[in-house]
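Something for you to look into today, if you have time. Could you write out one complete protein record for me, on any chain you like? Leave the record below and I will have a look.
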Amino acid sequence: MVKKNLYPLVVTVGLSLIVPLTGNARPILTRKEYLKSQLLSLGEPEPGDNALTLTAGNRHVKLSPPTIGIFGGDNVELSVFGNFGNNILHSFTGRNLKYQLAAVLVTPPIVSSDLDYKVEHFFNTHPSYGRFALPVPYTGELLPFIAGGSLLAYAGIAHNDEVLGASFAVIQASIIELMDNIALKTITGRPAPNWRRHSNMDALSEEFRFGFLRGGIFNGWPSGHTGATMAVVSALMGYYPNSTWLKVAGYGLVAYTMYGVSSVDRGSMHWFSDAVAGALMAYAIGSTVGRYYRSVYSSITGSRYNPSSTGFSLGVTPYGFGLRYRF
């Protein structure tokens, strides 16, 4: 049975959907729609004009080339805030609503079964296991900057538009995940398993202080370190859906981060359910943003892209809820 003070957690899924209601964005254009939008003029082409000219009888249709850049324009392009409002909305609706709901609904069973307390107690009494994950507090915070920044720098140096799209996917997914994470921590107020300040960790594992800023914006539910890591990884997975090594390395890093936030400093960083919720929510965000940028890049280059070729699927099985990943 779910303990009484956990019922408000389920209600937060409604509040967490307030964030997607902000922002306006242009829809993704197909290559055909792009060409139609670029019918600039009818007449003779000018000498030396850097444009694609189509001839129909004695008339010419001039198409300006697509552009790719940081700032938006009239042409189809990759932009760091491209489709920002719609990407937020799509991260919390449709198929992604299942992941957001799962993150909320899986937390009460983990807490009420004392799994959070048991995980914390194990690492509290076996501190040596946490030493394997000492980099996690740093990688969880810095990965969006390292991944997004290095991809952006390489794209600029090598003039690689595909990598530029990957950097924008990482940056935007990280921004959306951070916004969502802060909003949820602001209203749930769950205390961290800090053994230095609390002695009754069993009771503390069940505590949620719902309200406004009752627990700050840095500690609590869901895990920001896990969320930031998963946002980067799933954005890259959505952008590079056929990269097997990236999947293995990326999701291995997510698992390592979940282990780290539950074990570092004798388990005082996060409860296990914080990590699970952070991973599920960030996957929905990152995969949505990554697929968007890949579709835009594919529209510009005319390459084919199958957004459903890889990824997680969540559904009901005869034994309960199931999570499956298709390579």
Notes: The chain has a mean pLDDT of 79.
